[in-house]
Amino acid sequence: MAYKKRDRNLYDTKSKVPFKLSRTRLENFINCQRCFYLDRRLGVDQPPGFPFNLNSAVDHLLKKEFDLHRAKNEKHPLMKHYKVDAVPYQNSNLDQWRDNFTGVQFLHAPTNFLVFGAVDDIWINPQDELIVVDYKATSKDGPISIDAEWQNSYKRQMEVYQWLLRQNGFKVNNTGYFVYVNGKRDAKAFDGKLEFDINLIPYTGDDSWVEDVLLEAKKCLESKHIPKASPDCDYCNYRLAAAKVEKQ
Fold it and tell me: Which of 39, 79, 169, 202 is surrounded by the fewest CB atoms within 10 Å?
Protein backbone atom coordinates (compact mmCIF):
# COMPACT_ATOMS: atom_id res chain seq x y z
CA MET A 1 0.00 0.00 0.00
CA ALA A 2 1.37 3.40 -0.97
CA TYR A 3 2.25 5.82 1.79
CA LYS A 4 -0.22 8.68 2.02
CA LYS A 5 0.64 12.14 3.26
CA ARG A 6 -1.69 13.38 5.98
CA ASP A 7 -4.01 16.16 4.83
CA ARG A 8 -5.81 17.08 8.05
CA ASN A 9 -5.09 18.60 11.45
CA LEU A 10 -1.93 20.29 10.25
CA TYR A 11 -0.63 23.33 12.05
CA ASP A 12 -1.36 26.59 10.25
CA THR A 13 0.66 29.56 11.46
CA LYS A 14 -2.09 31.95 10.29
CA SER A 15 -5.04 30.14 11.83
CA LYS A 16 -6.74 31.40 15.00
CA VAL A 17 -8.58 28.10 15.51
CA PRO A 18 -7.28 26.12 18.53
CA PHE A 19 -4.91 23.39 17.38
CA LYS A 20 -5.63 19.93 18.81
CA LEU A 21 -2.50 18.42 20.30
CA SER A 22 -2.69 15.00 21.89
CA ARG A 23 -0.58 13.74 24.73
CA THR A 24 0.98 11.25 22.32
CA ARG A 25 2.02 13.96 19.85
CA LEU A 26 3.54 15.99 22.68
CA GLU A 27 5.60 12.93 23.61
CA ASN A 28 6.69 12.72 19.95
CA PHE A 29 7.96 16.28 20.22
CA ILE A 30 10.01 15.37 23.30
CA ASN A 31 11.52 12.40 21.48
CA CYS A 32 12.27 14.13 18.17
CA GLN A 33 11.42 17.66 17.10
CA ARG A 34 12.12 16.88 13.45
CA CYS A 35 9.60 14.02 13.34
CA PHE A 36 7.09 16.17 15.23
CA TYR A 37 7.48 19.02 12.72
CA LEU A 38 7.25 16.71 9.70
CA ASP A 39 4.04 15.26 11.15
CA ARG A 40 2.11 18.19 12.60
CA ARG A 41 3.34 20.93 10.23
CA LEU A 42 4.00 19.09 6.94
CA GLY A 43 1.70 16.08 7.23
CA VAL A 44 4.35 13.34 6.98
CA ASP A 45 3.81 11.03 9.93
CA GLN A 46 5.98 8.17 11.13
CA PRO A 47 4.98 4.73 9.79
CA PRO A 48 2.13 3.36 11.89
CA GLY A 49 2.80 0.58 14.36
CA PHE A 50 0.79 -2.60 14.53
CA PRO A 51 -2.04 -2.72 17.09
CA PHE A 52 -1.33 -4.52 20.35
CA ASN A 53 -4.59 -6.44 20.51
CA LEU A 54 -3.71 -8.44 23.62
CA ASN A 55 -2.81 -5.25 25.49
CA SER A 56 -6.06 -3.68 24.32
CA ALA A 57 -8.00 -6.69 25.60
CA VAL A 58 -6.34 -6.42 29.01
CA ASP A 59 -7.09 -2.69 29.09
CA HIS A 60 -10.73 -3.28 28.21
CA LEU A 61 -11.22 -6.02 30.81
CA LEU A 62 -9.53 -4.01 33.56
CA LYS A 63 -11.85 -1.09 32.89
CA LYS A 64 -14.88 -3.37 33.05
CA GLU A 65 -13.64 -4.89 36.31
CA PHE A 66 -12.96 -1.55 38.02
CA ASP A 67 -16.27 -0.19 36.73
CA LEU A 68 -18.12 -2.93 38.63
CA HIS A 69 -16.67 -1.58 41.87
CA ARG A 70 -17.14 2.02 40.70
CA ALA A 71 -20.89 1.42 40.39
CA LYS A 72 -20.96 0.18 43.99
CA ASN A 73 -18.68 2.98 45.25
CA GLU A 74 -16.40 0.39 46.82
CA LYS A 75 -12.72 -0.46 46.76
CA HIS A 76 -11.36 -2.94 44.25
CA PRO A 77 -9.57 -5.91 45.93
CA LEU A 78 -6.28 -4.67 44.47
CA MET A 79 -6.72 -1.35 46.30
CA LYS A 80 -7.43 -3.23 49.52
CA HIS A 81 -4.38 -5.46 49.06
CA TYR A 82 -2.06 -2.47 48.57
CA LYS A 83 -3.86 -0.43 51.26
CA VAL A 84 -4.78 2.43 48.92
CA ASP A 85 -7.35 4.60 50.68
CA ALA A 86 -9.47 5.41 47.65
CA VAL A 87 -12.33 4.19 45.48
CA PRO A 88 -12.88 4.35 41.70
CA TYR A 89 -14.05 7.85 40.81
CA GLN A 90 -17.59 8.38 39.56
CA ASN A 91 -18.07 11.15 37.00
CA SER A 92 -20.45 11.52 34.07
CA ASN A 93 -17.50 12.59 31.88
CA LEU A 94 -15.45 9.45 32.48
CA ASP A 95 -16.37 7.80 29.17
CA GLN A 96 -15.35 10.96 27.33
CA TRP A 97 -12.12 11.20 29.31
CA ARG A 98 -11.30 7.63 28.31
CA ASP A 99 -12.01 8.15 24.62
CA ASN A 100 -8.86 8.43 22.49
CA PHE A 101 -10.34 11.18 20.31
CA THR A 102 -11.62 13.41 23.12
CA GLY A 103 -9.96 12.57 26.42
CA VAL A 104 -9.47 15.16 29.15
CA GLN A 105 -9.12 18.49 27.33
CA PHE A 106 -7.75 21.93 28.13
CA LEU A 107 -7.26 24.97 25.91
CA HIS A 108 -3.80 26.30 26.69
CA ALA A 109 -4.16 30.02 25.97
CA PRO A 110 -0.44 30.94 25.50
CA THR A 111 -0.11 28.44 22.63
CA ASN A 112 -3.74 28.09 21.53
CA PHE A 113 -3.24 24.32 21.78
CA LEU A 114 -6.26 22.23 22.71
CA VAL A 115 -4.29 19.67 24.69
CA PHE A 116 -5.96 16.32 25.35
CA GLY A 117 -5.21 12.84 26.60
CA ALA A 118 -7.25 9.70 27.29
CA VAL A 119 -6.95 8.35 30.83
CA ASP A 120 -7.39 4.69 31.73
CA ASP A 121 -8.86 5.26 35.16
CA ILE A 122 -9.26 7.78 37.97
CA TRP A 123 -9.67 7.08 41.66
CA ILE A 124 -10.59 9.46 44.46
CA ASN A 125 -9.39 9.53 48.06
CA PRO A 126 -11.17 10.79 51.22
CA GLN A 127 -9.54 14.22 50.73
CA ASP A 128 -11.43 14.55 47.40
CA GLU A 129 -8.17 14.36 45.48
CA LEU A 130 -8.21 12.60 42.15
CA ILE A 131 -5.67 9.85 41.57
CA VAL A 132 -4.56 9.14 38.00
CA VAL A 133 -4.30 5.44 37.18
CA ASP A 134 -2.74 3.92 34.08
CA TYR A 135 -2.96 0.30 32.95
CA LYS A 136 0.10 -1.45 31.54
CA ALA A 137 0.58 -5.02 30.33
CA THR A 138 3.70 -7.07 29.67
CA SER A 139 5.06 -10.60 29.89
CA LYS A 140 8.53 -10.98 31.36
CA ASP A 141 10.56 -12.88 33.91
CA GLY A 142 11.63 -11.09 37.06
CA PRO A 143 10.11 -8.22 39.04
CA ILE A 144 7.98 -5.53 37.42
CA SER A 145 9.09 -1.92 37.80
CA ILE A 146 8.97 1.45 36.02
CA ASP A 147 12.70 2.11 36.42
CA ALA A 148 13.86 1.52 32.84
CA GLU A 149 14.83 4.58 30.80
CA TRP A 150 12.28 3.78 28.10
CA GLN A 151 9.56 3.88 30.76
CA ASN A 152 10.15 7.60 31.34
CA SER A 153 7.48 8.11 28.69
CA TYR A 154 5.03 6.29 30.99
CA LYS A 155 5.83 8.75 33.75
CA ARG A 156 5.41 11.77 31.48
CA GLN A 157 2.13 10.29 30.28
CA MET A 158 0.79 10.22 33.83
CA GLU A 159 2.07 13.73 34.52
CA VAL A 160 0.26 15.12 31.47
CA TYR A 161 -2.98 13.57 32.72
CA GLN A 162 -2.40 15.08 36.16
CA TRP A 163 -1.74 18.46 34.54
CA LEU A 164 -4.88 18.26 32.40
CA LEU A 165 -7.11 17.46 35.36
CA ARG A 166 -5.58 20.30 37.40
CA GLN A 167 -6.17 22.74 34.55
CA ASN A 168 -9.82 21.67 34.64
CA GLY A 169 -10.06 22.71 38.29
CA PHE A 170 -9.72 19.34 40.02
CA LYS A 171 -7.63 18.60 43.07
CA VAL A 172 -5.12 15.96 42.02
CA ASN A 173 -2.86 13.91 44.24
CA ASN A 174 0.78 13.93 43.15
CA THR A 175 0.88 10.14 43.50
CA GLY A 176 -0.66 8.11 40.73
CA TYR A 177 -0.62 4.35 40.16
CA PHE A 178 0.31 1.96 37.39
CA VAL A 179 -1.80 -1.19 37.36
CA TYR A 180 0.86 -3.37 35.75
CA VAL A 181 -0.17 -6.89 34.72
CA ASN A 182 2.45 -9.47 33.83
CA GLY A 183 1.58 -12.54 31.76
CA LYS A 184 2.90 -15.67 33.46
CA ARG A 185 5.44 -17.64 31.44
CA ASP A 186 6.05 -20.50 33.86
CA ALA A 187 2.81 -22.43 33.31
CA LYS A 188 3.14 -26.10 32.33
CA ALA A 189 0.93 -25.59 29.29
CA PHE A 190 -1.03 -22.88 27.52
CA ASP A 191 -4.40 -24.69 27.65
CA GLY A 192 -6.09 -21.83 25.83
CA LYS A 193 -5.58 -19.27 28.58
CA LEU A 194 -3.02 -16.77 29.76
CA GLU A 195 -2.79 -15.95 33.46
CA PHE A 196 -1.45 -12.71 34.89
CA ASP A 197 0.13 -11.38 38.05
CA ILE A 198 -1.19 -7.92 38.90
CA ASN A 199 1.10 -5.30 40.42
CA LEU A 200 0.21 -1.84 41.70
CA ILE A 201 3.15 0.55 41.34
CA PRO A 202 2.92 4.06 42.85
CA TYR A 203 4.53 7.00 41.10
CA THR A 204 4.87 10.56 42.40
CA GLY A 205 4.49 12.85 39.42
CA ASP A 206 5.75 16.36 38.74
CA ASP A 207 3.93 18.16 35.92
CA SER A 208 5.94 21.38 36.18
CA TRP A 209 7.65 20.63 32.85
CA VAL A 210 4.46 20.59 30.77
CA GLU A 211 4.07 24.35 30.39
CA ASP A 212 7.60 24.89 29.06
CA VAL A 213 7.38 21.96 26.64
CA LEU A 214 4.11 23.27 25.21
CA LEU A 215 5.74 26.64 24.58
CA GLU A 216 8.71 24.93 22.93
CA ALA A 217 6.38 22.85 20.73
CA LYS A 218 4.60 26.06 19.68
CA LYS A 219 7.92 27.67 18.76
CA CYS A 220 8.87 24.58 16.78
CA LEU A 221 5.66 24.61 14.74
CA GLU A 222 5.96 28.36 14.08
CA SER A 223 9.42 27.93 12.57
CA LYS A 224 9.95 28.04 8.81
CA HIS A 225 12.77 25.52 9.05
CA ILE A 226 12.67 21.77 9.65
CA PRO A 227 14.52 20.96 12.91
CA LYS A 228 17.67 18.87 12.90
CA ALA A 229 17.35 15.12 13.31
CA SER A 230 17.54 13.83 16.85
CA PRO A 231 20.63 11.60 17.34
CA ASP A 232 18.50 9.15 19.36
CA CYS A 233 15.58 8.95 16.91
CA ASP A 234 15.32 5.55 15.21
CA TYR A 235 13.22 6.99 12.38
CA CYS A 236 15.66 9.80 11.63
CA ASN A 237 18.66 7.49 11.88
CA TYR A 238 17.02 5.07 9.45
CA ARG A 239 16.27 7.83 6.94
CA LEU A 240 19.82 9.21 7.18
CA ALA A 241 21.39 5.75 6.84
CA ALA A 242 19.18 4.85 3.88
CA ALA A 243 19.90 8.14 2.13
CA LYS A 244 23.65 7.65 2.63
CA VAL A 245 23.59 4.17 1.13
CA GLU A 246 21.44 5.28 -1.80
CA LYS A 247 23.96 7.97 -2.70
CA GLN A 248 26.83 5.48 -2.87
Answer: 169
